[in-house]
Backbone:
């Protein structure tokens, strides 16, 4: 049986300069896990995902927009999004986040 174990998500990715860094830490037929590190002011502009997704904010603070709503996500905040929900993320300060794409629940275009 194959598994993925990461003892320390903070140590698994570093915030770098004035950039957004991402690292896929797990991928199989059902789930893709991607760590993100955002420098302050960096963002993922509005987009959608074809599958349900979960955002877990490890540290920092980011402004998260979900459709017409937005809120400030701090350490340990969790967001679940249905497929095709427009969303964006902008780091207010250096921020690390784990994204889980739940591919086993893909919807047709």
Residues:
């Amino acid at each position: 049986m194959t598994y993925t174990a990461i003892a320390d998500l903070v140590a698994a990715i570093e915030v770098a300069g004035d950039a957004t860094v991402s690292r896929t830490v797990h991928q199989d037929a059902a789930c893709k896990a991607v760590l993100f590190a955002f420098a302050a002011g960096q963002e993922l502009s509005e987009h959608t995902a074809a599958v349900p997704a979960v955002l877990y904010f490890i540290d920092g603070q980011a402004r998260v927009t979900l459709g017409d709503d937005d809120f400030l996500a701090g350490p340990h905040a969790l967001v679940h999004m249905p497929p095709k929900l427009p969303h964006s993320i902008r780091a207010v300060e250096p921020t690390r986040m784990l994204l889980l794409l739940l591919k086993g629940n893909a919807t047709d275009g």
In short: The helical segments are 9-12. DSSP finds one helix and nine strands in the chain.
